[in-house]
Amino acid sequence: MTKSQLIETVASKIQTVSKKDIEVIVDTIFNCMTDSLTRDERIEIRGFGSFVSKVREAREGRNPKTGEKVFVPKKRTPFFTVGKELKERVDLKKDLNSNS
Amino acid sequence: MAMTKANIVEEVYKKVGFSKSQAAEIVETVFETMKLVLERGEKLKISGFGNFTPRDKKTRVGRNPKTGEAIEIAARRVVTFKASPVLKVKMNEQAP
């Protein structure tokens, strides 16, 4: 499912709000989360999961094609930890649907 | 301070001007819909943010790190997240 399909689905569930408004809201949610990670602030969505920004130290890497040494600068990367409810729901339903 | 669903609801409320309870209901529906998608084993792609992918893990033999005892870890389905390059770039705009 893509973000636009997510918007469609939410709009079909909440008939009192226009699709345009749902779109603005969905965008606000992900913009909020992006801003939070950009500020180095963790995100906790109870039942869904949490996101943290971790720093990866600078290191000497190699270009896997040429074997040439390259300098990989220090950078921030987001990490996601799945929440208890989502973790359990996804695992419980695994036998009902295959995702191969 | 961590950002929570309450902070997101507050932002949505400020942005669209619905009542707080309505903003909360919509935010809740968005996350619930995302959970339902992943629950049915479907990948969720949020452009500009990242992809959530359900993955099937095979049974494997693990060890209790305390006792060293071998234990079987049952086959299970987990959710992984891969950040969008757009998100990674934004997170690194200011020097870390």
Characterization of the model:
The complex is a heterodimer of chains A (100) and B (96). By secondary structure, chain A is α+β, with helices and mostly antiparallel strands. Chain A is extended, with a radius of gyration of 19 Å. In chain A, the strands form two sheets. Chain A has a three-stranded antiparallel beta sheet. A two-stranded antiparallel sheet of chain A has the order 3-4. Chain A has three helices and five strands. Chain B is α+β, with helices and mostly antiparallel strands and 96 residues long. Chain B contains three helices and six strands. The radius of gyration of chain B is 19 Å and the shape is elongated. Classes of the chains: A alpha+beta (100), B alpha+beta (96). β1 of chain A pairs parallel with β1 of chain B.
How large a portion of the residues of chain A is in β-strands, by DSSP E? 25-35%
Query: Rg of chain A to the nearest angstrom?
Result: 19 Å
Number of self-contained structural domains of chain A: 2
N-to-C SSE string of chain A, H for helix and E for strand = HHEEEEEH
- Sheet with the most strands: spatial strand order of chain A: 1-2-5
- The helicity of chain B comes to 40-55%
End-to-end distance of chain B, in Å? 18 Å
What average pLDDT do the residues of chain A reach? 92
**CATH architect. name of the largest domain in chain A:** Irregular
Using the coordinates shown, work out and report the CATH topology of the largest domain in chain A: HU Protein, Chain A
What is the mean pLDDT of chain B? 93
Describe the main β-sheet of chain A briefly: 3 strands, antiparallel
* Largest interface pair: A-B, 57 and 56 residues
Total count of strands of chain B: 6
Our count of helices of chain A gives 3
Radius of gyration of chain B from CA coordinates: 19 Å
Structural class determined from secondary elements of chain B: alpha+beta
Poorly predicted runs of chain B are none
